[in-house]
Amino acid sequence: MSAESSEPRGRFTYWRLRFRAWRGTRPFWAGLLTLLSGVPIAYFPYAELKLGHLTLTMATTAGAGSLIIGVLLATLGLTMWFQSIVRVFAGVATILLGLVSIPVSNIGGFMMGATLALIGGGLSISWAPGRPVDDEEHADDSADGRPAKHAAVRRQTFKPDGGAVDQGVPDGGGDDPFLPGPHDGGLKLTDTTAHANGGRNSAG
């Protein structure tokens, strides 16, 4: 493969990844559906369909209202893309405009525009930004469900008289507030000694 053919492919991959990153930080599909919903609502009142020598005009007295609704839906779609902080307001306004277009604009652009507006508005309301990986400090990464920062296991040897000798942390971690320290008494182990070294239990 020549360098000329690999360079356009690498450039395409670069812009594709850039677009994916941009799309993941905003309600992209909600904005796209909202933009598309404004097209049939604003188009049909001004459209002229020709059937042979017959011209069918679907213009109504509410043609100006349909145009305003279509422009507002397009504006709300762009708002969802570039001002995602007001996505809830934009979603609610999109749903209301979609409902208003049903009696105003040829049954909401023959229900195509109204349906797209309702779906886009619902997606915009339900969308939430993802949490960065660095902020997930309380994620349960250990096998026993404890946070990862407290996953260090302290090696202890329990003695038959109820005491315990702390032998430190085998993996070099810090103190673990979830594991008990040395006991003065109360724990009676007569015939069993639990060794945390290697996770083996021996009876003797």
TrEMBL record:
Keywords for the protein's UniProt record, in alphabetical order: Membrane, Transmembrane, Transmembrane helix
Protein name in UniProt: Integral membrane protein
Bias type Low complexity, positions: 160-169
Keyword match Metal-binding: no
InterPro entries linked to this entry: DUF6114 (IPR046096)
Region (Disordered): 130-204
Compositionally skewed regions (Basic residues) per UniProt: 148-157
Pfam families according to UniProt: DUF6114
TM spans (from-to): 28-46, 58-78, 85-104
Organism name: Streptomyces camponoticapitis
Residue spans of biased composition, Polar residues class: 190-204
